[in-house]
């Protein structure tokens, strides 16, 4: 960290404790406390009538799409009262807040003073209410007109030696309409430098599924969860991050599904659920969800999956076809013989050791799966953010292929997406590696030749800024400095830029850790009314299961000086290209239907977009796996052969996963509690196994420093309180983004280049001269 007197704005949270309080780990998620908690937050931030109005419209057909996670809404019946969860309500509260930051706020608070606050404090300041500019060498932001802001950005972009010196990041809340225009603008400018939050999130899933199954998205619909016989949940904490998934699991379970979850933590939502949207739930009558909990070691999933498959194959050999779906395998797949040989070569004892799951439990899993054919596997960051993430997800696919569990009702892949439109942004072409067909369509439809060379993803963008190869950073949403790995390095990379620009709703740390000049462009959020030429507009999003739906805000914007994201892109493009452009930017400014017409011409699956998006509940995009086909090079699904790998660790090393608390949405910190895990009023904690604590001569409550050594560089995060927690030996957990300083920028997943945020090797050292 910088010294106290430094005026360089701080990239990390202050090393101060907020007053840890402890409670019991909860066994049941949601119920009445969740309802109370969400109402309190919304009313507190937005006021009663504004708050209630927002909640009433949230996820209703014709309402606005929840800005929290990407979990789908039911296709048919939606709850007449509430089709949202506690954390969705909190995301709305954040956005619907009545607090706004006027020029006086920025003249009273210097950038470096604001950066001394915690993320929680920065976020609670409110919505940015007008465009703001930080001139070179200045200590305070000052107001700027929209025209001047666009003029400055255009002039800076034009001054670059090459368009590849600019980086255009996207977070996953951006609507389809805004995302489409944004990638079009960036490609007309002349670069494919379009990193996005996916690079840190489900990139590994996209790569694995694309290579094995021919489509980088999941195959199931929501209703498949109601029909499944077995649902496996690997590396996901739905109780906090996708709470509405619990209702679907509950329904599946009622219909007879067995649920198996594997997690290093006994996450509350996996264990039990009390549905706040049913009468029984309001009376707090609960359902136990998980039938078999596998208390797996961090990154033990590949070994577990191989052990399960070994025993399934052995069982099948006793009576061929009784366990494996040989017809499906024969007709649809490639590589089964080599795969079986590979599995037979594995050492079962080693697999047991690496996974941390006993042979008895592995056999129980196999018993559950053996004669079932409708199997769904759900996963999230617990599988995607490891060095071998792509191969682990391919191992998930191997299991589903053995059982013929893809392309039929009640079965398939379910990577549970994060941001509410992260999947849609990709569909719209936000990708540093565009397909040839997209580029060809752009050329045909828009009259310019887009760049063909692949651009930079998140990790490579950071490195390019650090080494001076990239000079301008433009963020369409998100909080780049806090969300990315290696905070010290990344902050330095951003500081080296000549200009950093953020299109944002709320103030965040990335506005404070800035380039020579910086600009904040404040935009409308999902819940805000968006009026163009006197007509209310709507946008559209794609959820985790490929449904496109409209989203129309209902709240009066907190300021007249906000622009929508599509409008920001249009006006920037006009400032940039003037009348030299072959794209009709003026048209897109007039009505969003014109943007959807352009999308329809360019992206497949959007036939009659404007008509179908107006159907209540929206429409499904085509999905080859769902239809039982595989769009790979061979038109077959591929079994993948990969060894079980482990990272070299010293005897006193711990493996750390960086996870979300219940009170946060990524870098937006709603509060300081993690209610389900029984941790209150403190985020600087490290969850450790009892034995790991005592072996180090430490005790619960001690304050420690966390040290990572990777590639000869020492990374340190000071002052974390030890919490004894049921986590396997050798494993530990902390909250992100406080520990992102420890995630090495060069430690990435093979093939997907995703930072290994769940696989950080560290030593804990007693913090000296400090007590709490
Ligand atoms: N309220 C709320 N909702 C959110 C978000 C939020 O921050 N807050 N974030 C959104 C985003 S962008 C995303 S990507 C998703 C994230 O959703 P999750 O992936 O559920 O989020 P994480 O907190 O990263 O949790 C990862 C889970 O995987 C487990 N895990 C870690 N390593 C391993 C492993 O090696 N093996 C196994 N089997 N398990 C492991 C952890 O114990 C934890 O339960 O949620 C989205 N929804
Ligand atoms: N160590 C560690 N690091 C991680 C992860 C992890 O598990 N561990 N998870 C990774 C994952 S999965 C993800 S997805 C990334 C998330 O990375 P990002 O998407 O970059 O981060 P967020 O915190 O979601 O961004 C929040 C900011 O977005 C802005 N915002 C909110 N709504 C809108 C909107 O409608 N429009 C615009 N323009 N701006 C808006 C607000 O200003 C807010 O401060 O973080 C990654 N980083
Ligand atoms: Mo994510």
TrEMBL record:
Entry's Gene Ontology BP terms: cellular respiration
Domain Molybdopterin dinucleotide-binding: 654-760
SUPFAM superfamilies per the UniProt record, alphabetical: ADC-like, Formate dehydrogenase/DMSO reductase, domains 1-3
Cofactor names: Mo-bis(molybdopterin guanine dinucleotide); [4Fe-4S] cluster
Keywords, comma-separated and alphabetical: 4Fe-4S, Iron, Iron-sulfur, Metal-binding, Molybdenum, Oxidoreductase
Domain Molybdopterin oxidoreductase intervals: 127-502
Family of this protein: Belongs to the prokaryotic molybdopterin-containing oxidoreductase family.
Record protein name field: FdhF/YdeP family oxidoreductase
Source species: Dyadobacter frigoris
């Amino acid at each position: 960290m910088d010294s106290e007197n430094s005026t360089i704005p701080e990239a990390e949270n202050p090393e101060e404790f907020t007053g840890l309080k402890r409670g019991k780990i909860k066994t049941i998620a949601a119920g009445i406390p969740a309802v109370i908690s969400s109402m309190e937050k919304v009313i507190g931030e937005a006021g009663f009538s504004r708050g209630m109005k927002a909640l009433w419209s949230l996820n209703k057909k014709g309402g606005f799409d929840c800005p929290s996670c990407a979990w789908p809404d039911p296709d048919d019946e939606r709850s007449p009262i509430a089709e949202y969860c506690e954390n969705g309500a909190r995301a709305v509260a954040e956005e619907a807040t009545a607090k706004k930051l006027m020029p006086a706020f920025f003249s009273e608070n210097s950038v470096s003073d604001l950066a001394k606050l915690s993320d929680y404090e920065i976020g609670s300041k409110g919505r940015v209410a007008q465009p703001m500019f930080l001139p070179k060498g200045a200590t305070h932001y000052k107001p700027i007109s929209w025209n001047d802001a666009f003029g400055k950005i255009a002039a800076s972009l034009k001054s670059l030696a090459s368009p590849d010196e600019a980086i255009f990041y996207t977070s996953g809340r951006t609507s389809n309409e805004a995302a489409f225009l944004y990638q079009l603008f960036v490609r007309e400018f002349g670069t494919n430098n379009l990193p996005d939050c996916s690079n840190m999130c489900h990139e590994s899933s996209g790569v694995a599924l694309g290579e094995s199954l021919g489509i980088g998205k999941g195959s199931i619909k929501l209703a498949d969860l109601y029909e499944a016989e077995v649902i496996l949940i690997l590396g996901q904490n739905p109780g906090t991050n996708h709470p509405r998934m619990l209702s679907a699991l509950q329904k599946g379970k009622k219909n007879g599904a067995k649920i198996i979850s594997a997690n290093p933590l006994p996450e509350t939502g996996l264990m039990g659920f009390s549905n706040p949207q049913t009468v029984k739930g309001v009376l707090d009558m609960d359902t136990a969800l998980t039938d078999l909990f596998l208390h797996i070691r961090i990154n033990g999933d590949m070994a577990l999956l191989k052990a399960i498959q070994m025993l399934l194959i052995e069982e099948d050999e006793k009576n061929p076809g009784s366990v494996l779906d040989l017809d499906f395998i024969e007709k649809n797949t490639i590589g089964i013989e080599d795969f079986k040989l590979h599995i037979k070569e594995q050492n079962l004892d080693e697999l047991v050791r690496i996974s941390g799951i006993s042979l008895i439990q592995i056999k129980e899993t196999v018993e559950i799966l053996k004669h079932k054919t409708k199997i769904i596997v759900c996963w999230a960051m617990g599988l995607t953010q490891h060095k071998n993430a792509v191969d682990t997800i391919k191992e998930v696919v191997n299991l589903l292929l053995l059982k013929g569990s893809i392309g039929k009702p009640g079965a398939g892949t379910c990577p549970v997406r994060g941001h509410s439109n992260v999947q849609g942004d990709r569909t719209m072409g936000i990708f540093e590696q565009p397909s040839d067909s997209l580029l060809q369509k752009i050329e045909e439809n828009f009259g310019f030749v887009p760049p063909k060379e692949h651009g930079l993803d998140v990790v490579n963008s950071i490195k390019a800024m650090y080494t001076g190869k990239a000079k301008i950073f433009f963020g369409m949403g998100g909080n780049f400095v806090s969300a990315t790995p290696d905070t010290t390095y990344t902050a330095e990379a951003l500081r080296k830029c000549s200009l950093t620009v953020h299109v944002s709703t709320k103030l965040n740390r990335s506005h404070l850790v800035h380039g020579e000049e910086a600009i904040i462009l404040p935009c409308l959020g999902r819940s805000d009314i968006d009026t163009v030429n006197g007509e209310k507009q709507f946008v559209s999003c794609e959820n985790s299961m490929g449904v496109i739906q409209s989203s129309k805000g209902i709240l009066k914007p907190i300021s007249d000086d906000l622009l929508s994201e599509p409008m920001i892109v249009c006006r920037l493009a006009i400032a940039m290209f003037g009348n030299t452009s072959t794209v009709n930017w003026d048209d897109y400014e007039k009505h969003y239907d014109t943007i959807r017409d352009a999308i329809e011409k360019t992206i497949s699956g959007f036939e009659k977009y404007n008509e179908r998006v107006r159907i209540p509940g929206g429409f499904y995009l085509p999905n080859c796996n769902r239809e039982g086909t595989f769009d790979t090079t061979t038109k077959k699904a591929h079994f993948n052969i990969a060894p079980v790998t482990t990272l070299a660790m010293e005897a006193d090393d711990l493996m750390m996963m960086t996870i979300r608390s219940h009170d946060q949405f990524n870098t937006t910190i709603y509060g300081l509690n993690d209610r389900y895990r029984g941790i209150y009023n403190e985020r600087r904690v490290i969850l450790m196994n009892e034995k790991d604590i005592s072996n180090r001569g430490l005790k619960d409550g001690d304050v420690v420093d966390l040290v990572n050594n990777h590639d000869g560089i020492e990374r340190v995060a000071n002052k974390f309180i030890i919490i004894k927690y049921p986590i396997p030996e050798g494993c530990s957990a902390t909250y992100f983004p406080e520990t992102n300083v420890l995630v090495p920028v060069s430690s990435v997943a093979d093939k997907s280049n995703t930072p290994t945020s769940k696989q950080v090797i560290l030593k804990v050292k007693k913090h000296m001269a400090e007590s709490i």
